[in-house]
C-alpha cells in the first residue's frame, strides 16, 4: 500500500472533485497505515503474553494439584519448595544464614 506511479490517461474521464477525493483518501490511508500496523503488532504481542501467562499459571496450578498427595494434602508443596540437590551446594553460606535466622 505504498505510493506508486499512476497512469493519468485513464483518470481523464473522472471529474476533478472525484479525483481530489480519491487522492485525499489514498493519502489518509497511507498516513494511518503505519499506525494500524503498529497497533496490530502490539495487540499480537499482548495476546501472546497473555496466552503464555495463562499457560504458565494453569500449568503451575495443575502441577501443584498433582503434587498434593492423599486426602490430607500434606507434604507436596513443601517438597516442591525445597532446593534441588544441584542448587544446594552452590550457596552453603546462604543456607547457614537462613538456618541462623530461623533459629535452627
From TrEMBL:
Residues 84-104 are annotated as: Disordered. Residues 22-104 form the GED domain. It comes from the Eukaryota. Residues 92-104 have a biased composition (Basic and acidic residues). This is GED domain-containing protein.
Amino acid at each position: 500500500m505504498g505510493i506508486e506511479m499512476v497512469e493519468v490517461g485513464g483518470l481523464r474521464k473522472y471529474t476533478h472533485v472525484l479525483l481530489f477525493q480519491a487522492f485525499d483518501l489514498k493519502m489518509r490511508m497511507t498516513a494511518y497505515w503505519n499506525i494500524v500496523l503498529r497497533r496490530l503488532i502490539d495487540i499480537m504481542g499482548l495476546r501472546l503474553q497473555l496466552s503464555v501467562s495463562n499457560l504458565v499459571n494453569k500449568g503451575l496450578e495443575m502441577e501443584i494439584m498433582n503434587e498434593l498427595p492423599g486426602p490430607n494434602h500434606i507434604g507436596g508443596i513443601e517438597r516442591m519448595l525445597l532446593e534441588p540437590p544441584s542448587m544446594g551446594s552452590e550457596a552453603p553460606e546462604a543456607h547457614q544464614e537462613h538456618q541462623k535466622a530461623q533459629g535452627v
